Amino acid sequence: MMLTKRLIACFDMQNWMVTKARQFQNNIPIERAEMVADRVYREQIDEIIFYDINASAERRRIDLETVKKVAERVFVPFTVGGGIKSLEEMYQVLKAGAEKISIDSMAVRFPNLIREGAQAFGRQCIVLSMQVKRVEKSSRIPSGYEIMIDGARVATGLDAVEWARRGEELGAGEICVNSIDRDGTHTGYDLEITALISNKVNVPVIASGGAGHPSHVADVFQKTGASAAIISSMLYSPLMPRNYSVREIKEYLAARRIPVRPWVEE
Amino acid sequence: MIGVIDYKAGNAPSVLNALRALKIRAELVSTPEALRPLTGIILPGVGSARATMDSLRELGLIPALAEKVLGEKTPFLGICIGMQILMEYSAEGDTPCLGWLKGRVERFDGAVRIPQMGWNEVTFRRRDPILAGLPEKEFFYFVNSYYVRPEAEEAVLATTHYGREFCSMLAWGSLYATQFHAEKSGVAGLQLLKNFAFLAGGEHDADEAPHCLF
């Protein structure tokens, strides 16, 4: 056996509620964060990520009480992101029980946040999350993927592959590639940018955005160097014709010889 | 009472949450005085060997820990960096460590992504009370760029593959250590913590006493 591929349940939170969006818009509240976390933990998810989606745009702090509630009932790693912009905030989120900090827009504004976070807490704590959008290839954006920030509202002029490499150099322990074009579309991950980035960095890469069927997850593991894949709509979105359990997805992957932590009867 | 060593670079709250979910009496500990009454000690760890050593030194915990663990043989569980610093030396930041066990800490090399991050399979080499209720192989969650190389082969309780075979769990008398994060390894990790608490005389429901499945 080798290191298994991870399935990560990712939830967008707005005022303690998990919400579901399409292309970063029109969020629908679904359920309290700790309840969702508890359920998906019992389903044997490998890892969980929470984004406090308005914390960044509204320039307010992460809801630490919710982080604590999740940490009390979830015994797999979980990551928290959303507007974190100082070492002090990182420290508070980690002490509230999260394993990792995800930084995105703030890392673009203040790249030293990656370096300082990695130095203070270890690089394994720092997930560089990036919102990538397909654009015309140009001398400025040679990969044809541009980094966007603030809920995909603001273009940065940064090339996605270049930013990923820079993030790794600065000390990110993991890179999460979120495709804005695929977000909430259920048409599969953007394999091209996931492959480009996972070939260019040596830290683990998380594929994100677009999964709607277990075959999409199999594709991203078979066709790119992704170490982990984010599934969210598949698990719980009411916008899907049907949802899938963690067990179904894992059994689908295992049947295709993709190494996963097996689902076990309890 | 089990004490979870709380220091700036650690993830003590995660370990405490796991123990509390198991209804095991435990507290965070960060002074030499608070160590004395403990029947079991868990040293969690994330981050770097140097930051962890510095932090333990600042808190003045090192002599008291050595006395409790090496002197009084209080059951001890080191996790991740809490395992690595038991060795004499870590290549991470060229750091002298506790040296409770002879050996070194080396960095993964070759073609693997670093850090190793995720669930990997742990193969136990022999039976041990801390493994009660666990099968011979089990998946646990790892986050590490470095691994321990103890001199004494008999201290190796379990191994795992990541580019190479490495020691993923140590057992030496009442001294235990895991490279994986038992507190973040779902049901299997909780079982291991529960077994440790049992060894450490922690509060435990007698009906649920673990029994060996080997």
CA-based gyration radius of chain A? 17 Å
| 3D shape of chain A | globular
Find the structural class of chain B using helix and strand composition: alpha/beta
Low-confidence stretches of chain A: none
Main beta-sheet strand count, sense and barrel state of chain B: 9 strands, mixed
Strand content of chain A: 25-35%
CATH class bucket of chain A: Alpha Beta
Radius of gyration of chain B over all CA atoms, rounded: 16 Å
Strand content of chain B is: 25-35%
The CATH architecture name of chain B reads 3-Layer(aba) Sandwich
SSE sequence of chain A, one letter per element: EEEHEHEHEHHEEEHEHEHEHH
Overall pLDDT of chain A: 91
Helix/strand structural class of chain A: alpha/beta
Tally of individual domains of chain B:
1
Which homologous superfamily in CATH is the superfamily of chain B?
Answer: Class I glutamine amidotransferase (GATase) domain
CATH topology of chain B: Rossmann fold
Helix residue percentage of chain A: 25-40%
CATH architecture level-2 label of chain A: Alpha-Beta Barrel
What's the count of strands of chain A?
Answer: 12
